[in-house]
Input
Amino acid sequence: MEQEACTQARATEISGEATTSPLTAADRERLTFFKWRYILQADGFAAAQARRLTFMRWLYLQGRLVE
Output
């Protein structure tokens, strides 16, 4: 019973945090691109290669690049 109450309390907290996020859509987009570049650089790509691959991914997601 106590576990169930804790789970419900956590679900309420999580849903409340998501609706009151101070980040704008542009902020989230910038953070996403930063994450992509960070992952690529951690995988051994040079900074210039990571920028190029991130740009290619952005083009693909925008529908401007087709396989």
Remarks:
- The first helix runs from residue 2 to 19.
- The chain is about 80% helix and 0% strand.
- The helical segments are 2-19, 25-42, 47-62.
- The radius of gyration is 18 Å.
